[in-house]
Design goal:
The protein is built from 4 helices and 7 strands. The protein is α+β, with helices and mostly antiparallel strands. Strand 3 and strand 4 form a beta hairpin.
Length: 166
């Protein structure tokens, strides 16, 4: 999975200016990675992991994995889309529809088809499972597709504004 607009939380042993942190990290990051912003939250703030509520993904579709606008409309119209999985030898069933906030089919550059997903972390949905439900293709055949994580969102933004690091 490629990541864009990733978020990282660093715990400091002493107070350091955010500009200094950005420069220091950028000096040692691999080519193509860059810290563009940082902030010092109040002492009593919860961790970023507890604040972030939604994640946006893009997957580039292929000839063998297809999704149409009709598939999306049908999926979003449902209140339940059960998913069965095995955890610790026990069969569990979850409703993956509940955590899907938004789905959008797009054609990029006039030819590459993609699907954008905005998923709620409250429901612990995995993007592979959502695409499997939409396309009818088994999850193990979807890992070879090109996946991108586009951003993390706070609840107040409801998927409209990116958070922190690009």
């Amino acid at each position: 999975m490629e990541g864009f607009n990733e978020v990282i939380e660093i715990h400091l042993t002493e107070l350091v200016e955010t500009d200094e942190i950005i420069v220091s990290l950028n000096d040692v990051l691999p080519v193509g990675m860059k810290i563009e912003g940082a902030f010092l939250p109040p002492e009593d703030s919860p961790s970023l992991g507890k604040l972030i509520r939604e994640v946006e993904y893009r997957v580039y579709l292929s000839d063998s994995v297809r999704v149409t606008n009709w598939d999306i409309e049908e999926f979003m119209a449902k209140t339940e889309v059960p998913l069965e999985y095995v955890r610790k030898g026990e069969i569990k069933i979850i409703n993956i529809r509940r955590g899907v906030e938004q789905l959008e089919y797009t054609v990029l550059d006039g030819e590459r088809e993609s699907l954008n997903m905005l998923l709620s972390l409250d429901e612990n949905n995995r993007p592979y499972d959502v695409l499997a439900a939409l396309s009818g293709v088994e999850r193990e055949y979807l890992v070879g597709l090109r996946w991108q994580r586009l951003g993390f969102y706070l609840p107040a933004y409801k998927g409209r504004k990116r958070l922190l690091i690009k």
